[in-house]
């Protein structure tokens, strides 16, 4: 059985959960989200902890989704209480970003500006050469950050491009004379 699935989820103060047959809805100070439950997996609410229970240990598919269900539910609880944040850094001469409404205008060294439409549920801020994406849904925030980074990933010779703040890029040596 999954070690991750067995761990209880402790809900912080101000967060409440309502159980349904096929999903768990969690409300917190940042908003409300729902996490689906797979067949054969149930949730028990005891005080301020959520415990997942796998009913059929013989079914390989149910056992394989046990840890996944717990991780998704833990991300929902974290999202509605603290939220998630990804920080991107622009490196390169003339690389800039601006927020205009729900769009992010990027100048990334192309002959034209790149306009990225920020998805609903994700908030974008620009601070000098950093783009800060935040929201309550971990998947949406991570996907938005990956899509922005894909416009101009960091290149290995000069390091120019869009990168995560904590990302390490192995630099290559240029041509030898």
List the domain count as a whole number: 2
Low-confidence sequence ranges: none
Largest sheet: 4 strands, antiparallel
What's the shape? elongated
CATH architecture of the largest domain: Alpha-Beta Complex
* Strand proportion: 35-45%
- Tell me the strand order in the biggest sheet: 11-12-7-13
Please write the string of helix (H) and strand (E) elements: HEEEEEEHEEEEEEHE
Using DSSP, what is the number of strands?
Answer: 13
Q: Look up the CATH topology of the largest domain.
A: Outer Surface Protein A, domain 3
Residue-averaged pLDDT: 92
Report Rg. 21 Å
Decide which structural class fits the backbone.
alpha+beta
CATH superfamily of the largest domain: Ribosomal protein L6
Short description:
This protein has 177 residues and is of the alpha+beta class.
How does this model look, in words?
This protein has two domains: 79 residues, Ribosomal protein L6 (Outer Surface Protein A, domain 3, Alpha-Beta Complex), CATH 3.90.930.12; 81 residues, Outer Surface Protein A, domain 3. It is elongated, with a radius of gyration of 21 Å. β9 and β10 form a beta hairpin. It has three helices and 13 strands. 23% of the residues lie in helices and 38% in strands. By secondary structure, the protein is α+β, with helices and mostly antiparallel strands. The longest helix is centred in the middle third of the chain and has 22 residues. It starts with a helix and ends in a 13-residue tail after the last strand. The strands form four sheets. It has a four-stranded antiparallel sheet with strand order 11-12-7-13, covered by helices on one side. It has a three-stranded antiparallel sheet with strand order 1-6-5, with helices on one face. A three-stranded antiparallel sheet has the order 2-3-4, covered by helices on one side.
